[in-house]
Amino acid sequence: MTDKLQLIHITQETHGVDIDLVYATDRNFTGKAIYKEAHCLLLAPAEAGLRKAVELAASIGMKLRIFDAYRPPQAQQVLWDFLPDPTYIAELGRGSNHSRGTALDLTLIGGNGEPLDMGTGFDAMVKESEHFHQGLPQHVQRNRLLLLGIMHAAGFTHIPSEWWHYELPGSRALPVIDNSESGPLKLM
């Protein structure tokens, strides 16, 4: 495997982020743990972008909290089986950029250690989760735009339906990575 396709471990100690991988818990929209262990992984180019995003957040006294990063295709299958809606879950034939190691689900944590109010919870599969959903309070719009600005400045793009999802542009050109059996992310 080339360096470009090598998954890098992201930890609180090495990257200065808060990690709460919800798919290793029952605190996700399926109501059950999907991963046996919580390992946060990204491809090298995404890891470099994350480092830039961490610097930008720190420059304004904030921190990033990661909810999900690399996701084995088998975990993507579990999510699709639970909610087969391409608005929120990438179809298996298309493949998720999480399964390419180039996507992150995350939020911002303020100086008080609490996450900023983004109007909905992570993984809320509702219209209000759209980046630019009208009718949300000003402070929510501001918080979402702050996260958007940090992530875009770090080289990531967003998808319209999820305020928490960011990915590297051009990710679809990369192959889906399957390390569910040999790698650290084992499924339940």
TrEMBL record:
The record marks 71 as: Transition state stabilizer. Zn(2+) binds at residues 98, 105, 165. Pfam families: Peptidase_M15 (PF01427). It catalyses: D-alanyl-D-alanine + H2O = 2 D-alanine. Its cofactor is Zn(2+). Binds 1 zinc ion per subunit. Its EC number is 3.4.13.22. GO terms for biological process: cell wall organization; proteolysis. The active site is at 162 (proton donor/acceptor). NCBIfam families: PRK10178.1. This is D-alanyl-D-alanine dipeptidase. It comes from Paraburkholderia diazotrophica. The lineage of its organism: Bacteria, Pseudomonadati, Pseudomonadota, Betaproteobacteria, Burkholderiales.
